[in-house]
Design brief:
Elements lengths: L5 H18 L2 H19 L13 H4 L1 H25 L3 H28 L5 E5 L13 E5 L5 E2 L6 H7 L4 H8 L12 E2 L6
Helix pairs in contact: 1-2
Length: 198
């Protein structure tokens, strides 16, 4: 059951105003009339429905913050790139150094081939780069190379997993050392190079 209370309220407001008019000065009566008329206008006009904050997407609410963060990240990336360019060594001297090292490696390869063929299989071979005037290094480059011969013959029932477990290595290392495309294609009597244990 709904009732319209506006006529009742208006009658009540008029009666209150009449009662006040006899006892209050005219200035206070005018103020009260204005206030009462504002209250009736507010009651008559429907209130606006407030929009919920969650009804707008997050990106739309925080677009300015997202733009500021992305600009900051772009400036940081640009600064980091410039810093890397400034700290990069001179490329003209590095290309000359690379060419001279390539020549030194070529000389080492030609000098060490006779040593490798003359050495016994499995023994360490000493390789040293010849000192050249074009390469200005403080000490000569030295490295060791070891010739690996097949040291295991596949028996019946062997798999790469069993062989790897027996020699404390991995299947991938055995495949890499022996260039085996398929680990299941082992044949009895095949000789394999077993890599050193891990």
């Amino acid at each position: 059951m709904t009732t319209n209370c506006e006529p009742c309220y208006n009658r009540f407001a008029r009666s209150v105003m009449q009662a006040r008019s006899t006892s209050e000065p005219e200035l206070l009566q005018a103020r009260r009339r204005r206030r009462d008329s504002r209250e009736t206008e507010r009651a008559a006009t429907p209130r606006r429905v407030r929009r919920r904050r969650g009804s707008t997407p997050w990106l739309q609410r925080n677009a300015l913050s997202v733009a500021a963060v992305s600009v900051l990240i772009a400036f940081l990336g640009l600064g980091f790139g410039l810093l890397q360019m400034l700290n990069r060594p001179d490329t003209s001297s590095s290309s000359a150094m690379t060419a001279s090292l390539a020549q030194a490696d070529l000389a080492v390869a030609t000098n060490s081939t006779s040593v490798l063929t003359a050495s016994t299989a499995g023994a360490p071979v000493q390789i040293s780069a010849p000192s050249s005037s074009s390469v200005d290094t403080g000490r000569p480059i030295q490295s060791n190379a070891r010739v690996l011969d097949p040291n295991y013959t596949v028996a019946s029932g062997d798999t790469l997993v069993k062989i790897a477990q027996r020699f404390n290595t991995t299947v991938e290392r055995i495949q890499a050392f022996n260039s085996l495309p398929d680990p299941r294609a082992l044949r009895v009597g095949t000789k394999l190079v077993i890599p050193p244990p891990l």
